[in-house]
Amino acid sequence: MGTIQNLDEIDNKILKMLVEDGRATLNEMADEVRLSTSGVRRRIEILEEKGVLKGYTAKLDPKKAGYSITAFLNVDVKSSEAGRVAGTLTRCKGVCEVHKTTGNHGLLVKVRAKDRADISEFVEDRVSTYQGVKDVDITMTIETYKEDFIDI
To answer: Which residues form a coiled coil (predicted)?
Structure first.
């Protein structure tokens, strides 16, 4: 762990800097990895072309943005309907992640909402009514200790 395969140490350092501070300047990265700014820029372009870097975004504090509750939904869905249900869920406000899983459930969905009532309403009025959904099991978080896309 700690480095991405098929990338050299410099690429991994650049990625780590971008993950930790997406606003790091080319000059700062160049100083850290001991390359020219044009060399760093070219490496970033290659990482983008390879699809390793998929975009740039701001990190929001969910609670300060009004999403104080996080829940994980285990959605038991007919296997033939999993793709369609997943596609519908990806377009729903508050849905952060949708994963097809092994085991008893077909989909694992991470949802953020302002309160528990919003989660319940989302499940009862929407998710549980989707064609192919057999059952939805809700797990609400009490506290989050770590949440990052990837730790390089």
So the answer is: none
Q: Specify the DSSP element, H or E, that contains 12.
A: helix 9-20
pTM for the model: 0.80
Q: Find the CATH number of the domain harbouring 87.
A: 3.30.70.920
d(C-alpha 133, C-alpha 76), whole Å: 6
Instruction: Give the residue numbers spanning the domain of 33.
Output: 9-49
Give the whole-angstrom CA distance, residue 111 versus residue 5.
Answer: 31
Q: What is the DSSP annotation of 41-92?
A: HHHHHHHHHTTSS----PPP-TTTTT--EEEEEEEEE-GGGHHHHHHHHHTS
On whether residue 58 sits in a domain, the answer given is no
pLDDT digits (tens, 9 = 90+) for 11-50: 999 999 998 888 999 999 999 999 999 999 999 999 999 9
Q: Which residue has the tokens 């999403």?
A: 67
